[in-house]
Structures are given as structure tokens and as C-alpha cells.
Amino acid sequence: MEEVTVTLPTKTYQIKIANGLLNTIGTEVAALWQPRKIAVISDRQVAPLCADQVLTSLKAAGFEPHLYLVEAGEASKSLGVASSLYDELVGDGFTRTDGVIALGGGVVGDLAGFVASTYMRGLAFIQIPTSLLAQVDSSVGGKTAVDLPSGKNLVGTFYQPDLVAVDPTTLKTLSQRYLVEGYAEILKMAAIDKPEFWQIIEKIDQPAAIMTYASELIKASVTFKAKVVIADEQEGGLRQILNFGHTMGHAIELLAAGALAHGEAISIGMVQLTKLFEAYQLSPVGLTQQLTTALQKVGLPTESDLIGSQAFYENMRHDKKNRHGKLNLVYLKAIGEPVIYPVQLNELETFFSGQAIITK
Ligand SMILES: NC(=O)c1ccc[n+]([C@@H]2O[C@H](COP(=O)([O-])OP(=O)(O)OC[C@H]3O[C@@H](n4cnc5c(N)ncnc54)[C@H](O)[C@@H]3O)[C@@H](O)[C@H]2O)c1
Ligand SMILES: O=C(O)C(=O)C[C@@H](O)[C@H](O)[C@H](O)COP(=O)(O)O
Ligand SMILES: [Zn+2]
A Pfam family name for this chain (predicted)? Predict the structure, then answer.
């Protein structure tokens, strides 16, 4: 078993990574929680694959698990779905001494974490991520959210789990599209972490290689993400680097209305933003091509015709790195050297059209 510890001012928790961990999840949970009711929140695609394993193990450890299912996909990250879950928890008599477990990808993790953090002002919460994206990124760090029609993750909380239990064997049933999509967030972390991480990326020459290096990639990603979160839990400054590619990416994802998965949109966002900063001579010549090549090797998109419309700029203005009239963008001075670069909101169009005057 690999373990990474997340030590924060208010709590410390473990990210545990082991093949077959779902079979013994009850024992892991019993080491943290007294017997209680547990809301296991999952989606209709994931639950038939592994919910039985989790429920059986929880029951054997003395818990009373209740399974709640949402539709698979981003549309479930809504206030409406959260509200239905609150009603079900009330109906089943959940109280503040009970718990919530997210069993699924990033959608289920963000939604269940949001419900756990708000229902009766907060129930204990555990993440069991089953997609690659969730295992490397979304289950760690405590960002929970639902979307609004006007933007991604616009309502949410910082709410840390008591445990993140990663069982990489769950990835065997994940489609190639979502394996590759999760890889986009791995590549993001490799691009902003020390160059040793990028060296693992250099070895990934086709989608199948992602599975070959999965354990190494998961460990490197959560170790890096944990380090950033420990340094800046609530994104006062440094944590914004984890948003590399997300300002454009989230705007594109919203405009694509379900046609692009999160990681696909972030892939486009990383490349197009780097292209802009390369043109402004703030990123080195050739960096856009380096990122493009690494992303295209696994089939990720790097371009979109959704960029540049009025709605695109409007979406970017809702970015949570928008502070005091400036939008903090994250660009790369080099691989492993992310820089936070504030742009005046009233100059956003000029900046993104490549016509701004840059003083270095
Ligand atoms: N909180 C954070 O820090 C954070 C970080 C990154 C992304 N996110 C959010 O995560 C979401 C994207 O997560 P995602 O890519 O996991 O999407 P997802 O949860 O929609 O999962 C992708 C698809 O894979 C299926 N799936 C999941 N695990 C599976 C398995 N083991 N076998 C077969 N199918 C499986 C799901 O049912 C879904 O259809 C976005 O909403 C994004 O905003 C949050
Ligand atoms: O954990 C973080 O911090 C991140 O930014 C990770 C991102 O990959 C993730 O998509 C996150 O949900 C984006 O957060 P947001 O604050 O831009 O909504
Ligand atoms: Zn992301």
C-alpha cells in the first residue's frame, strides 16, 4: 500500500493507494469512523461495477450503508441533484453523526463532497475515486462543487475528506476516452511540477501507455497535488497553479455543452493559453509544440472553434481566480515553472486577441 499524507491546519488525512483496496474498504473506514449510517453516492454507470463490493465490505465492518444513484455525467453536478440527495438523506433519517462516501469519478466526488459539506452543516466524508481523473486530481484537496448554467463549479466549498481510498484496479473498466481525459490533468501537473515528473510524460507515446505507467502517474500526481494543497489549502495564492489551462478550459467546456469532457477542454486550454504566452514572449519558443505533441500522442484535442466569442469572454470572467478586477492566469515560464499573471478584466479581450502591450 502506498500512502501520501495531507497535513492541514484543521485536519490530517491519508491518500491510500492499493490494488484491491475496495475489498477491504470497510476495515479502512472502521479505523476512522464509529458504526454509523453511510450514504454511498455513486452514478448509474459506476455502481453496477463496484458498489456491491463496497457495500458488502462496509456491512461486514458494522456499518449501515445506503446507496444513492445519480445519472452519469456533468449534468448531475447541479443544485437540483444535490437537493434531491438532501431529500433522500432526510427521508432515510441521516443525522450529523452519519457519513457520506463518494464512489465514482470527479462528478460524483464533487457532488457528494458538496452534499456532505452542506447537509446539516457537514457530515464526515470519504472519497473512493474510480476514474483516472478522480484518482489523480479531484479526490484530493477538498474542492467540492456544483455547476450553475453560467459557469463551472460556481457553488461549492472547501471540505476535506477523512480518507481518499484509491484502488487502481477500478480503471480496468474505464473507457479509453475517460482514461485519456484523466491523463490531461496528469500532464497539467507534470507541466507545473519539477521536471522529473515531465520525464514520465515523455514515456507516454500512446493511450495504452497510460495504463502501463498508471501507478507511477497516480503516485506522482497525488504527491504533487498534496504538496500544493498543504501549502495553500484555500487557493489564496500558490494553489492557483493547479488551474493551469482552466481559465480557457472551463469556458470551452461550458460552451461545448457536454460535447467535451473536462480533461479534453483543459487540454485545449493549456495549449491555447501557452500559444498566447509564447506569442507574448513570456513562454519559451517551442513550448506550445511540446505540450501539443504530448497531448496529441494520446489523442487529446488541442484546438477549438469555441474560442473568441462574446460568451467565451463572459465565461472567463466568472473564473474563481478573478480577484479585485483582475483575472489571474497561469502560464509556464518553462516546464516546472508556473507563473501567476494578472490581467485587468477590462483588458481581457485585448489580451486574449494577442494585441496587448506587454512590459516585462
Ligand atoms: N474537485 C477537484 O479538485 C476537481 C479536479 C478535477 C476535476 N474536477 C471535476 O471532475 C469532473 C470530471 O471527472 P471525471 O472525468 O471523472 O468525470 P465523470 O465523473 O463524469 O466520469 C467519467 C465517466 O466515467 C465513468 N466511470 C467512472 N469510473 C469508472 C470506472 N471505474 N469504470 C467505468 N466507468 C467509470 C463515469 O460514470 C462517467 O461516465 C468535472 O466535473 C470536473 O470539474 C474536480
Ligand atoms: O484542486 C484545484 O485547486 C484545481 O484547480 C484542480 C482542477 O483540476 C479542478 O478542475 C478544479 O475543480 C478547478 O477548480 P475551480 O476553482 O477552477 O472551479
Ligand atoms: Zn481540472
Answer: DHQS_C
